[in-house]
């Protein structure tokens, strides 16, 4: 147990140092703009379909489950605000991050890990090319910038799916549905979700690039690093969501 705790602390420390070096490189070297846009396209546009499906599914399920609970208290008119607030503040940012981790985060780790194992990263250093500037920073910046847009996309389609489910399946009055959203929703709800997305994008990209950048042990080590990257990133996102929600919580 003690060895496991020490190893976890050591891993956390190394990731912290890696994040610090990434930020230093970001602000002290020239950005590779073309690489950033390429990574934004790969991470963002490539993940739209899965984020779209998840947003629709979550929005529809939220409407159904909210109806089951609220009907017992005669408050079904509040389904709209529940779907809106849940998608904007929680499910949109969190589920879009989890889906991107599964699709793009694992690919980032596998790509950098294969480059490390095949000594391509060592070759870049031999050619006096900064691997952090060339490989890590574009992926971190792209993930941090694109995830809020994916969160908005997921949230929007979740709200639309909730509206369709509530109005056309559960027979909730459409005017009541929209009016309760307008009277209860605030701009801060959307802003809080976007702030979370920025943090989530930075955190998962740091973990994915770190695991790939320091991969060891050949093909077996690459598989282990990819698995650990997805697991660690998912756990980090869940814990960060609680911390950020606590900091943003206002009565």
Based on Cα principal axes, name the global outline.
Answer: elongated
Radius of gyration: 21 Å
N-to-C order of helices and strands: HHHHHHHHH
Largest sheet entry? none
Helix content: over 70%
Beta-strand portion reads: under 5%
Instruction: Let me know the average pLDDT.
Output: 90
Which ranges are low-confidence, i.e. pLDDT below 50, for 5 or more consecutive residues? none
Structural class: mainly alpha
Query: Roughly how many Å apart are the termini?
Result: 40 Å
Count of beta strands: 0
Tally of DSSP helical segments: 9
Write the layout of secondary structure elements.
Layout: H1 2-28, H2 33-44, H3 48-71, H4 79-117, H5 120-126, H6 131-169, H7 174-184, H8 187-213, H9 218-248
Structural account:
This protein is mainly alpha-helical and 251 residues long. Helix content is 86%, strand content 0%. The chain is built from 9 helices and no strands. Helix 2 packs parallel to helix 6 (131-169), helix 4 runs antiparallel to helix 6 (131-169) and helix 4 (79-117) runs antiparallel to helix 9. The chain is elongated, with a radius of gyration of 21 Å.
Gist of the model:
With 251 residues, the protein is mainly α. It is built from 9 helices and no strands. Helix content is 86%, strand content 0%.
Give a quick set of tags describing it:
251 residues, 9 helices
